[in-house]
């Protein structure tokens, strides 16, 4: 099939707008008449600096990111950030204790008695992040504040009520995943119990927004850091963005000396995962893929040109597409069973089963029939099976409508 005959609902990497890919393909050969491609120009050239600055500015404008946040481009994917958050936030915790007057002996005691990182485990990705924290820190320092499987027969699909979360007293961070790509579970809003007080004080909250960033408004000021891989709503695979509150960076909060961390038995992260190092070097500590930043920048420019009211405009479209698709599924409860609970359904990853005497056979015929119509990438994650519609920003309303028509027709047949 040709590109124009396909609507691709894959979960990531996701489909990209064709006009942006065509422009990017040209830029790979010759970037703006320089005779050299964008992936060949030095990452330290003036034109690379301009691309980085414009992309940061456009992201800030689109998401309304306050001035007291730093935007950094990193590598290592979302998974790299599972580790980066642990290293950087535990480091910040040590620095704060030092700033409050703790010497090495006091620190040793504080680490043993008080150091915790809290995780809300609501799906496969927050589970992976939690496991990484246990691997790096030792599980005695990792508090599983909630595990959504405990209220849903061992499976993900619900978010336990906030009043049941067992948060630590002063954790180095509370970590959660805003949208669980595999399980189709999305936090409907920022959790009330984590909200900052009027004076801005409150828990240190970190969120993985890899699969719903740019699709809805984000109360950035409630977070100490958010991160997201580019490969769903932002661009092509290869860069990860971290939006980090400046109070976590020097001069407010320099990372502790490696020798001190070693004395305290705490992990010392790779330099390329250090927010401080990457921020200090304007994301150019080492070779950054400027091509990836360029593509992300083009996506943001297109979003800003399409939606004068910025992310609100895209949010309205995303919500509408999701409502259409869920509506079509709900119309045929005899054929489709939506997996997650209605209150936490993801607008981005719509997970359901095709029922029948033999679910496997029903789902196979669903996938075969959809593929024939150019509706691709619908197979659920290998760990959970079923069907997953990834309703990212690049899926146009007409794409969602085409899918809805198919859901109706398949349901009838
Ligand atoms: N977090 C979420 C929500 C994801 O969906 C993914 C990947 O799909 C990751 C993290 C891991 O990202 P990566 O594959 O870039 O490490």
UniProtKB/TrEMBL annotation:
One GO term describing the cellular component: cytoplasm
Pathway: Amino-acid biosynthesis; L-serine biosynthesis; L-serine from 3-phospho-D-glycerate: step 2/3
Residue ranges occupied by any Aminotransferase class V domain in the UniProt entry: 8-399
Pfam families, alphabetized: Aminotran_5
Enzyme Commission identifier(s): 2.6.1.52
EC class (word): transferase
Catalytic activity line of the entry: 4-(phosphooxy)-L-threonine + 2-oxoglutarate = (R)-3-hydroxy-2-oxo-4-phosphooxybutanoate + L-glutamate; O-phospho-L-serine + 2-oxoglutarate = 3-phosphooxypyruvate + L-glutamate
One GO-annotated biological process of the protein: L-serine biosynthetic process
InterPro entries: Aminotrans_V_dom, Pser_aminoTfrase, PyrdxlP-dep_Trfase, PyrdxlP-dep_Trfase_major, PyrdxlP-dep_Trfase_small
Keywords: Amino-acid biosynthesis, Aminotransferase, Pyridoxal phosphate, Serine biosynthesis, Transferase
GO molecular function: O-phospho-L-serine:2-oxoglutarate aminotransferase activity; pyridoxal phosphate binding
Cofactor(s) named in the record: pyridoxal 5'-phosphate
Similarity comment: Belongs to the class-V pyridoxal-phosphate-dependent aminotransferase family. SerC subfamily.
Protein's name according to its UniProt entry: phosphoserine transaminase
Species of the source: Pseudomassariella vexata
């Amino acid at each position: 099939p040709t590109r124009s005959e396909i609507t691709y609902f894959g979960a990531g990497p996701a489909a990209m707008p064709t006009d942006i890919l065509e422009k990017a393909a040209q830029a790979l050969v010759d970037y703006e008449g320089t005779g050299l491609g964008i992936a060949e120009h030095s990452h330290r050239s003036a034109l690379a600096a301009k691309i980085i600055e414009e992309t940061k500015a456009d992201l800030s404008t689109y998401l309304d990111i306050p001035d007291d946040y730093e935007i950094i481009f990193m590598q290592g994917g979302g998974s790299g950030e599972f580790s980066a958050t642990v290293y950087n936030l535990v480091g910040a915790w040590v620095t704060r204790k030092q700033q409050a007057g703790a010497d090495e002996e006091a620190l040793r005691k504080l680490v043993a008695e008080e150091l915790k990182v809290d995780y809300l485990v609501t799906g496969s990705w927050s589970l992976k992040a939690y496991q990484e924290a246990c691997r790096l820190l030792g599980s005695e320092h990792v508090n599983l504040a909630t595990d959504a499987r405990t209220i849903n027969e061992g499976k993900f699909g619900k978010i336990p009520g906030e009043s049941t979360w067992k948060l630590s007293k002063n954790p180095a961070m509370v970590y959660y995943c805003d949208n669980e790509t595999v399980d189709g579970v999305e936090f409907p809003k920022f959790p009330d119990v984590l909200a900052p007080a009027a004076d801005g004080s409150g828990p240190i909250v970190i969120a993985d927004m890899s699969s719903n960033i740019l699709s809805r408004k984000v109360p950035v000021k409630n977070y100490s850091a958010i991160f997201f891989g580019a490969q769903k709503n932002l661009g092509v695979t290869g860069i990860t963005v971290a939006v980090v509150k400046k109070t976590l960076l020097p001069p407010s909060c320099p990372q502790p000396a490696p020798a001190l961390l070693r004395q305290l038995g705490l992990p010392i992260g790779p330099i390329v995962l250090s927010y401080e190092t990457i921020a200090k070097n304007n994301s150019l500590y080492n070779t950054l893929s400027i091509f990836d930043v360029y593509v992300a920048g083009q996506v943001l420019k297109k979003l800003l040109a399409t939606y004068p009211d910025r992310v609100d405009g895209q949010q309205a479209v995303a919500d509408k597409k999701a409502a259409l698709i869920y509506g079509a599924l709900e119309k045929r409860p005899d054929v489709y069973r939506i997996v997650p609970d209605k209150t936490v359904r993801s607008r981005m990853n719509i997970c359901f089963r095709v029922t029948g005497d033999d679910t496997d056979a029903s789902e196979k015929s669903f996938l075969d029939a959809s593929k024939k119509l150019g509706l691709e990438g619908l197979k659920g994650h290998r760990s959970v099976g079923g069907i997953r519609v990834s309703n990212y920003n690049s899926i146009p309303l007409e794409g969602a409508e085409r899918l809805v028509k198919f859901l109706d027709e398949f349901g009838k047949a």
